[in-house]
Amino acid sequence: MASESLKGLSSSTAALDGAALRIGIVHTRWNKVVVDALVAGAVGKLREKGVKQENIVVQEVPGSFELPYACSRMIAASQQQASNAAPDLMTASASLLSMETDTPAPAQSGASTAPFDAVIAVGVLIKGSTMHFEYICDATSHALMKLQMDAGVPVIFGVLTCLSDEQALQRAGLGDSEGKHNHGEDWGLAAVEMGTKSRLWA
Ligand code: DLZ
Hints:
- By secondary structure, the chain is of the alpha/beta class.
- It is 48% helix and 14% strand.
- It has seven helices and four strands; from the N terminus they run βαβαααβαβαα.
- A four-stranded parallel sheet has the order 2-1-3-4, with helices on both faces.
- α1 (32-48) crosses α7 (183-200), α2 (67-82) crosses α3 (87-101) and α2 (67-82) packs parallel to α5 (132-151).
- It is globular, with a radius of gyration of 17 Å.
- The relative contact order is 0.21.
- Mean pLDDT is 89; it is low at 85-100.
- Bound molecules: ligand DLZ.
- Ligand DLZ binds next to β3 and α5.
């Protein structure tokens, strides 16, 4: 009999189909090597679950402290776009995203213009010798939770809060350590699951 491990995430019992979903990813440039691997892991799982490439919108910010604001603006802009409340913002936003991230502008590609079903905030905080780490971890995690509750849109907490470089590498599936695992993959799956369920729960 296969034994289940005590800790960690078990597979979803729901069949996940992301074909109709639109997902935003905001990632930091701080700790880029690790962040890039996490984003690749998330995108890989989104694609594996059927999310179309043109419906994955990727934006970058400097550091984790900027993630809540950026996620908030992306969600709000997509909601305004969908309700045609701000066509200019829609166009500006689409071309900005297109320019910076290779994400095709909706008008050009036939990509969805629906509001985001979920947004993934990806950052890596590594403890240093000052209190920066504690303040940014605390502010960022609370703001991302508040955002998803206020906006009614799932915000996936893709922020690693690590005590060492080795911890960060291991959690991005990098390095040589035993048991390494790319948590970005879990975040991609969580986005599909929560995006799908939030439609059911609307
Ligand atoms: C300032 C700072 C520090 C010390 N460490 C990190 C980090 O480990 N990971 C991260 O994502 N960002 C860090 N930052 C930058 C802040 O998040 C933020 O970008 C700046 O304070 C500007 O608001």
